[in-house]
Amino acid sequence: MEPARGVRTEEATVLGRGTRVLAGAVILACAALIGPSAPGGSLFAGTGPAPDARDAVPNRVMTWNLCNPCDTANTDRAAEIARYAPQVVALQEACVRDVRAVRDHLERLHGLDYHVEYGPVLRNWSRCGGAPWRPGQYGQAILSAAPITDAVTVEYPDGGSEDRGYTAVTTTVGGRSVRVFNTHLAERRQEEVRAEQAGVLASVVARHDRAIVLGDLNAVPDAPELAGIWDLAEDVDLHCRPLPAGTCKPTTDWHSKFDYVFLRGLAPLGHRVQGTPHSDHHLLYADVEAAGSADRADSAGSSRPG
Hints:
It is a single chain. By secondary structure, the chain is of the alpha+beta class. Helix content is 25%, strand content 30%. The chain contains 6 helices and 14 strands. The strands form 3 sheets. A 6-stranded mixed beta sheet has the order 3-6-2-1-14-13. A hairpin with an 8-residue loop joins strand 13 (268-274) and strand 14 (283-288). It is globular, with a radius of gyration of 26 Å.
């Protein structure tokens, strides 16, 4: 006589238990043979490892040309930035979608939370992908651990062989309100174009008593086109000056200094140039003068955003 529908016999129950036990034994045996597959040694990957919750270094700024197009994972880019945990990061040759991914990885994997201002100056399919009729946005970006205000992105009147521009924000570095600029000047062998761009940038930086200029200027320190910026600010490396007086560490794989942290109204405390396998430009970061308590609520000395 067959059991009523929906009622399990004792034999069937025992058989079911045996099947589950056998399946569990097979899974454990396989795990013993192949070892754990998730990061950190756990057997099953869930949402990934917990981030190392920490704060950014409050008086540290960094500039980095990401190299584009280059075959680099955004997780690797985020890990390089997280290693030094700067308060402000300026990125050049940056696709909006890559910067968004880097920012997400910094928060999810490293516990670093950044505000972002994207500064695209063109759409480029070969650099940033996307649909052929809607290529990805390309340019520069600023990440800041402190809130951002008065953000602008300005395209230079003449970009040279490729559109170029600068992005500027007001944020907090070392407890002080500072106007931060991130720029990428025209490519090499376009000195006249760079001179015009540097002039535009210098005229805006001059409006601020306290400013930090970050970026890839595509020019060595004694290049004539940078003279106007040198008149306004000093390099974070106190030994770096236009030749023949200065000794500047190279910041690229071809042993030239193209990447800068210029300070206006702030003093350098230290800096580092760090090579990386993930770009043809090195990471350059600097620690700048910490604020006194009386300066914590003051402004960036700006007459208007720029």
